[in-house]
Sequence to fold (267 residues):
Amino acid sequence: MKKASLLLAFALAACSAKPPADPLAAYEPPEGKRSFSLAVDKSQTQFLAAGDSVEILIMVETARADATSDTRSETLSPRAEVLRVKRDWSEGTGLIALALSPEEAQYAALAVDREDRLFLNKLSAGPERLKLKARPASPPVLDKDQRGLAVLAYPDQQEFLASGDRVDVLATRQSYKAGGKSELTALTLMQDLTVLRAGPPEGNEEWGTVQLMVNPEQAKTLTRAVSAEDHLSFAVRAASDRATRAVEPSKMSRRVGIEAERASPRL
Fold:
């Protein structure tokens, strides 16, 4: 009798259990946040699904006076929502889109360029309610007096982009201090641009292509960044989020550096 009761309880629990997450589900970022895509070690995406929340840790190496180095973990984001995930995107690699603040997105772009190792630690469910991402009924049309400027993009930045998305364009570039020491800087180059088209690499090509709708001045700024070989990333907005604000450029030393680096003069 006891065994039968246990089996009945198990069956009822199975019936009421939450259905498995849709592996193709894609959510919009909450207002004020951006969807930023990261290619990470497959182990970090294997057990995650759209709608989960994670803590993002970055592994940082600090040089010591004896020519050795210390490795430690620092928090890049205390909580970020998973908006979309491909657990087995390429050999040994998963692809994940996370909801980040504009500042956090800049630091994530720096981490990618620096080839820092990231860990995504799953958190318990939070209060954030996400909306499924809707696709436009028709592709966007190039407005009068606007330009359709195409740029090369790494596949991890192009994969989750679609026609009609609105994006901020981030750039990482080398900057130099008075003593000649260089450090990567990430900045928000442009805000609230429309993606006209996004295409994957073809054949043996390494790069995908993203076409953006820009005005003539924005076209000049973007072509200068491309000519300077800045690394471009794209942070996707919620469809209704049209607000813009100044975002201070980011340096990783300001976030996770030692005290002397954090206190050094700003460029």
Summary: The beta strands are 34-41, 53-63, 69-90, 93-100, 118-123, 147-153, 166-176, 182-199, 208-214, 231-236. The chain has one domain: 34-257. The first strand starts at residue 34 and ends at 41.
